Amino acid sequence: MRKRPVAAAVAAVALCGTAAPHAFAQRPAGQDETFLIQVHQGNLAEIAAGQDAGRHATSKCVKQVGAVLVRDHTKLDADVKTLADKLKVRLPASPSAEQKKQLAAVQAKAGTSAYDAAWLRTQEAGHRQTLALIDQEIKAGKNSQVVAAARSARPVVAMHLDMVRGGTCHMAGHTGMVGAGTSGEPATVEADTAAVGTAGLAGGGLLAAGGATWLLMRRRSTRTQ
């Protein structure tokens, strides 16, 4: 009769031993937490830059690219915040001081063609930096959920970089990448925003689909050239 409590205690210890590593594995490591914080600030900076382009850019192309950045980075950041909340990671409320300084430098050229050129150069540098952060997380991240989010976001960020590559606006080649309008014509930025806003990421599926759509559009464009 005395053996039963001992056996029960051993069984309880065994259960705790198997459950603890699993629970610990779900917590973000230093790399994962740093990634979530930095990519969140990057999203905030891109949203602010996109909104500013809508107000101050002189070319239609730059204004359109700015609208795409606002649309996509708003969705990306909503998913980052959801994941950070789930993993108990505290996110900052604003872009970094350096990101604010960069936007201010661009804003100083507002209303001139120099603004557009400076905005495009800044966006190219920013998206290259974001891709480097994503690749580092994919390579060294420990939390599977954070790594999956990084993989899903990569095609979208790469698409943005392609739109500003070389400090030149390339919006025309990317029209309707998220989806098509009901008439069969490429969807407008506003229509894409509504479509994206009605769906959840659900582990990165939406962004992965967006990346696949982008690759398909690129292939079709190449065939018609």
UniProtKB/TrEMBL annotation:
Organism superkingdom: Bacteria
Keywords assigned: Membrane, Signal, Transmembrane, Transmembrane helix
Signal peptide: 1-25
Domain annotation DUF4142: ranges: 31-165
Record has Transmembrane as a keyword: yes
Name of the protein described by the UniProt record: DUF4142 domain-containing protein
Pfam annotation, one family: DUF4142
Keyword Transmembrane: yes
PANTHER family assigned to the protein according to its UniProt record, in alphabetical order: BLR2558 PROTEIN
Coiled coil location: none
InterPro entries: DUF4142, Ferritin-like
Transmembrane region(s): 194-217
